[in-house]
Amino acid sequence: MAPFLIFLLFSVKPLVLTPEKAIKIALENNYQVVQSRYELESSKLNSKKSLAGLVPIGSFSASYAKYRDNGDIFENSAYSLKIEQNLFDPTSLVQYLSSKRQVKIAELALSSAKSDVVVNVLKSYYLVVSAQEKANYLRDFSKYAEEQLKAVKAKKEVGSATETDVLRARINLLQAKNSFRQAEIEVEQAKRDLLQLIGLSPDTDIMIDAKGIPYINVSISLSDSLKNEVIQLQEDLKIQLLKAENARLSYRSTLFSFLPRIYLGFEKNFNKTTPSMISNNTHTVKGIYLSLYFKFNDYPFNVKLQKKSLELQKFYVKQTTYTILKNIDDAYDNWKKSLESLRLARENLKLARALYRTSKARYDVGEISTLEFFDAELKLKEANLNFIQAKYQNFVALITLKSLLGMEVWK
Is the pTM of this model over 0.90? Predict the structure, then answer.
C-alpha cells in the first residue's frame, strides 16, 4: 500500500499554466472578482426588494378559542384582514430608483475588478517568468564560476596565477551560489503570489508555460482629446457619476419629504362568540379608508445632510477625474522611461559581452590580470540581470498604460 501511495504522490503532474489559463482561473476564483460578483447579485436582490414599497401590502390574522364559564361552553372565532396600497411616498420611489443605479454601479465594479485582475495576473505571471529567467542565468553563472575556480587553480600550479587570484575566484563562486539560491527563493515566492492571486492553494505545483517576457512593439501617443475620451470610459468615473445622481435624487426627494405619505386601504374585522347571552353575537367591521402620514421633526436636518452628501459626491467626481488624468500621465511617462531603460540595458549588455570577449582573450594570453578579467565577468553578470529586469518593467509599464487607455491588454 505504501509504495502505491508514494507512486501516486510522485505521479501527480504539475498544473501547466499559460497566461490565458491563469487569467481564466483568476476570473473564476480571484477573491476580488468573487466579492464583486456577490455584491452584484446582492444589489439585484435589493432592487427587487425595493419594489415592496410600491406594491400593495396586506396582513391577515385569525383566532379560535373554546372555554367554559359558569358551566356553559363558549366558542369564539375572529379574524382581521387589512390591505394597503401606497399612493404617494417619495421615500419608496427614491429607494427603488437608487437600487437600480446600485445595480449599475455593481456591474461597473465587477467589470473594473475583472480588468484589474487581468492586469495583475499578467504582472504576477511574468514576474515568475522573470524570476525563473534570472535563476536560470545565475545557475549557469554558478557553474561557470566553478569552472573558473578550477582554471585559476590550474594557472596557479604553473605559476601564472597567485593565491590572491584563487581567493577571488572562491569569493566569486560563493557569491554566485548565494545569488542563485536567493533567485530560487524569489521564484517560489513569485509562484505563491501568483497562486494566491488566481485563487489556488499555495501548495499547488505549477509549471509556467512561457518562452520569456514578451516585448510588444507599439506606438502610443497621448493627446488631450484622447485623454478626454478615455476619462469618459473609466468605470471609476462612471461609478462616481451614478453615486452623484443618487445623491441628487435623494436631495430632491428630501426637499419634498414634508408632503404627506398617502395610503389607500381596505380593512375587515370579524368577531363571533357562540352561544351569546346578548342578541347580537356577531360583530363585523369593514370599509375603505385613506391614510395620511406626516413627518416634520427632522425635516430641516435631513435636507442639510442630503445637500452635504450631494456636494461631497460632486467633489468625488472631480477628484476621480483628476486622479484618472494623473494615472494616465504617470503610466505614459513610466512606459516611456521603461523603453529608454530597456534600450540602455540592451546596449549595455552588448558592450558588456564585447568587453568580456576582449578581456577573456587578453586574459588567456596573460595580457591582463585576473582582477581585471573578473571585473569584466561581473559587469557581464550585472548587465544580464539588468536586461532581464528592464524587459519585465517595460512589459508591466505597457500593460498598465494600455489598461488605463481602455486598450486590449492581452491578445
Answer: no
Q: Which helix (H) or strand (E) holds 285?
A: strand 282-293
Query: Nine-digit cell at 14?
Result: 504539475
Sign (positive or negative) of CA dihedral 209, 215, 219, 221: positive
Distance, CA of 408 to CA of 411 (rounded, Å): 7
CA 132, CA 164: separation in Å to the nearest integer? Answer: 34
Per-residue confidence (pLDDT) for residue 300, from 0 to 100? 77
> Does residue 66 contact residue 73 with C-beta atoms inside 8 Å?
yes
The pLDDT of residue 372: 93
- Residue 370 and residue 390 in contact, taking contact as beta carbons nearer than 8 Å: no
Identify which of 186, 213, 176 has the alpha carbon closest to the alpha carbon of residue 381.
176
- Spacing of C-alpha 255 from chain mean position: 39
List beta partners, residue 175: none
Give the E-state strand segments of 177-276 in sequence order: 206-208, 261-274
Is 70 exceeded by the pLDDT of residue 289?
A: no
Please say whether the beta carbons of 134 and 388 come within 8 A.
Answer: yes
Q: Tell me the pLDDT band of 52, cut-offs 50, 70 and 90.
A: confident
Q: What pLDDT score was predicted for residue 297? A: 64
DSSP 364-409: HTTSS-HHHHHHHHHHHHHHHHHHHHHHHHHHHHHHHHHHHTT---
Burial 181-206 (b: 16+ CB within 10 A, else e): eebbebbeebbbbbbebbbbeeeeeb
Q: Residue 3: CB partners within 8 Å, gap ≥ 6?
A: none
Whole-angstrom distance, CA of residue 376 vs CA of residue 360? 9
- pLDDT tens for 14-27 read 899 999 999 999 99
Helix 163-198 and helix 19-29, axial crossing angle in degrees, nearest 10: 50
pLDDT, tens digit (0-9, with 9 covering 90-100), for 139-193: 999 999 999 999 999 989 988 889 999 999 999 999 999 999 999 999 999 999 9
> Residue 78, SS3?
strand
